[in-house]
Amino acid sequence: QVHLVESGGGLVQAGGSLRLSCEASGRTFYSNPMGWFRQAPGKDLEFVASISWNGGNSDYADSVKGRFTISRDNAKNTVYLQMSSLKPDDAAIYYCAADVNQKPGTSIHRWEYMYWGTGTQVIVSS
């Protein structure tokens, strides 16, 4: 059974940083894009970032470009999201996801992802 487990969320002051991790178990995803999404209270799930199988390509939502960095360590079956210059608008539950398809690029649409974690909460105080 496949599991994606996020960690690293918490409370941070505006302007601060957090590093989220997502470790996969049950199968490997070294040939698959992986991504991060988030959902704030009362809002829809939104795309945050995606990374290609080898880390050579990445895509970001406009709202996080220049502040967030996605990376992965295939040896550890883990994907990371380094978040800097956090704003109150970044507060949300962050989910990692794995695309079941093997392809060279990234995946930016939620429907492309088959496997999802249960989320980690990020709270940003102003």
How would you portray this structure in words?
This protein has 126 residues and is mainly β. Helices cover 0% and strands 49% of the residues. The chain contains no helices and eleven strands. The termini are far apart.
Map the helices and strands.
Layout: E1 3-7, E2 10-13, E3 18-25, E4 34-39, E5 46-51, E6 58-60, E7 68-73, E8 78-83, E9 92-99, E10 113-116, E11 120-125
Parallel strand pairs: 2-11
Antiparallel strand pairs: 1-3, 3-8, 4-5, 4-9, 5-6, 7-8, 9-10, 9-11
Structural key phrases:
single chain; 126 residues; mainly beta; 7-stranded mixed β-sheet; 4-stranded antiparallel β-sheet
CA-based gyration radius: 13 Å
- Mean pLDDT across every amino acid position: 96
Give the H and E element order.
EEEEEEEEEEE
What is the CA–CA distance across the termini?
40 Å
Number of strands: 11
Number of helices, counting only DSSP H or I runs of 4 residues or more: 0
Structural class: mainly beta
Q: Name the beta content range.
A: over 45%
Share of helical residues = under 10%
Global outline = globular
Largest sheet: 7 strands, mixed
pLDDT under 50 segments (min length 5)? none
Could you give a short description of this structure?
The protein is mainly β and 126 residues long. It has no helices and eleven strands. 0% of the residues lie in helices and 49% in strands.
